[in-house]
Amino acid sequence: MDDILCAGCGIKIQTENENAPGYAPPGALKHNPVICRRCFRLKNYNEIQDVPMTGDDFLKLLSKIADADALVVYLVDIFDFSGSWIPGLQRFIGKNPVLLVGNKNDLLPKSTNPNKLKNWLRRSVRGLGLRPVDVLLMSAEKNHGIDDVMQNMEYYRNGRDVYIVGVTNVGKSTFINHLIRQSGNGDGEITTSHFPGTTLDFIGIPLDDGHMLYDTPGVVNLHQAAHFVSEQDYGEIMPSKEIKPKVFQLNEDQTLFLGGLGRIDYTGPGRRSLIVYASNALTVHRTKLENADDLFHRQYGHLLTPPSHRDGLPALKRYDFRTDELNTDIVFSGLGWVTVKGKGARVSAYAPSSISVSVRASIIKG
Q1: Do 109 and 77 sit in the same domain of this protein?
Q2: How far is CA 35 from CA 16, 126, 171, in A?
Q3: How big is the CA angle at 208 (ends 177 and 157), to the nearest 5 degrees?
């Protein structure tokens, strides 16, 4: 059975152990294509089964790319760039050229300048040691910009294989399914979901010239908010349409809560604007700094949601910033960001330790 792979997640099919990855009942082998029970349940019932693979396991699989002669298409999430970055990517892919594609550009306000966004992405990845051959934007979910990505993939691969890489939830499988449908091979679609670790091994799709396009396992980044909330709450923190910025005029010593997962304390100087870029469904609550601790302890999981259920009270990690840009983004990985207007602001950000917080020059001017 070594040559039977799940068409949904790429793992080797086995029929002996129901609790092990790749299990399919013997009768499933009569179907074409063959998918494992995990993918069947995920596709038809939206159920997910845990698999015994860690982030290190996924990275070991990615390291196979270094031995190939191929084009690497690296998908990053524009809504969550910091959470979709793969540390040390270059050493896993060797000397292969990288085409950087920013996905989910439909989520940003329509006023966002695409050329400025591309330049920002290019500067950001160069600062992290990656020099892509080009930077493109698309929305796999809305099927925007995919033709442009396909044309550039064909140009830059120059008759070689293609590997699509990215973290979980970045939209790799949705993008590849568009490619499969456009090739007229809709029966070969791979499993997609917002659950981490949907793809478990390389999935090869033949190209017209005999080379292959590979979907690779999504690297699990545990510092995203998506890994902190339940399936029920996921829809509240993950935008499904264009973000509508929420503008707050804060006086000194006021606090903004991003549900129960993020907190911004503004201590001054003066009165200034803070703009929240997050899911339109996310509750943002303002209070006085002197009341913030008490409010969090009383209303976590109630007024301050998500999470929608209070299951203990998480310890929040504090990050102190003083802005030195005209517009500074305080980023909560996978949750969104808060733009602080003007230089010299004193800001403290809080989040559960499993959600990373960082600062950057604003990606949306104005």
Answers
A1: yes
A2: 15, 39, 20
A3: 80
Q: Name the residue range of residue 127's domain.
A: 53-221
User: Ramachandran region of residue 90, left (φ > 0), alpha (ψ -120 to 50) or beta?
Assistant: alpha
**How far is 226 from 303, CA to CA, in rounded Å?**
20
**In terms of domains, do 346 and 242 share one?**
yes
Exposure on the CB side of residue 331, measured as CA atoms within 13 A = 22
Q: Are strands 316-322 and 346-352 parallel, antiparallel or unpaired?
A: antiparallel
**Residue 366 falls inside a structural domain:** no
Per-residue pLDDT of 13-38, as tens digits, reads 888 888 777 788 888 888 877 887 77
Higher local confidence (pLDDT), 239 or 59 = 239
Residue at which a domain ends, from 12, 30, 52 = 52
- Residue 168 near residue 196, CB atoms below 8 Å: yes
Q: How many CA atoms lie within 13 A of 349 on its CB side?
A: 27
Residue 101 identity (one-letter amino acid): V
**Domain membership flag for residue 228:** no
pLDDT digits (tens, 9 = 90+) for 37-53: 777 766 665 444 444 44
pLDDT tens, position by position, 230-242: 767 877 888 889 9
Q: How confident is the model at residue 104 (pLDDT cuts 50, 70, 90)?
A: very high
Do 164 and 262 have their domain in common?
no
- What DSSP line would sit under 22-89, residue for residue? TB--GGGGGSSS---HHHHHHHHH------S--HHHHHHHHGGGGGS-EEEEEEEESTTTGGG--TTH
Treating both helix axes as pointing N-terminal to C-terminal, what angle do 146-157 and 172-182 enclose, rounded to 10 degrees?
A: 80
> What's the domain count of the chain?
3
Residue for token digits 């029966």?
Answer: 187
161-165: strand order across its sheet? 134-137, 98-103, 70-77, 161-165, 212-215, 203-206
81 and 171 inside one domain? yes
Side-by-side strand order, sheet with 254-258:
284-288, 254-258, 262-268, 346-352, 316-322
Q: Are residues 14 and 141 in the same domain?
A: no
Do residue 184 and residue 248 come from a single domain?
no
**Peptide bond preceding 206 in cis form (omega within 30 of 0):** no
Q: Assess whether 151 and 251 both reside in one domain.
A: no
